[in-house]
Design goal:
Blueprint lengths: L1 E4 L2 H10 L2 E8 L2 E12 L2 E7 L2 H8 L2 E11 L2 E13 L6 H11 L7 H11 L6 E17 L4
Length: about 150
Amino acid sequence: MRITPISQDDCIELLNRVSIGRLACSLDNQPYVVPVRFAYEPGYLYVFSTVGKKIRWMRKNPKVCLQVDEIGNLANWTSVVVDGNYLELTDPQYTSEREHAKEQLAQYSEWWRNPLAERREQTSDVSIENVFFRIDIQSMSGLRGVLEAK
């Protein structure tokens, strides 16, 4: 197998194709990684969540990383890593950006129901705080694994 870097255009193509990635954040030298659904547009990733560990941590340390991959098999895969900064889209300051995030995420059928329902089941609290946030992309890079012909 040969592993090669991919172009920025290839990174963008993958971010447009795939809507689930692993979000990494850290606090006090402790990393934390969770799967999230996202929507990509040039310069940004949009995500919906409820308040929990990742939101509390990102509020304190906005430096984040998102890893996305597409795996055909062990010798055929593509992976992209995005480094960026967390920005919570709160009202009233970011009302238009928040609405834009909803529109972007609405491309995925019932994108918000699962995390909200799961969180309410865990806490029995119907007043769970919804959070829309944006990752302002600072950099991205990717690799591709390809089986070499013998």
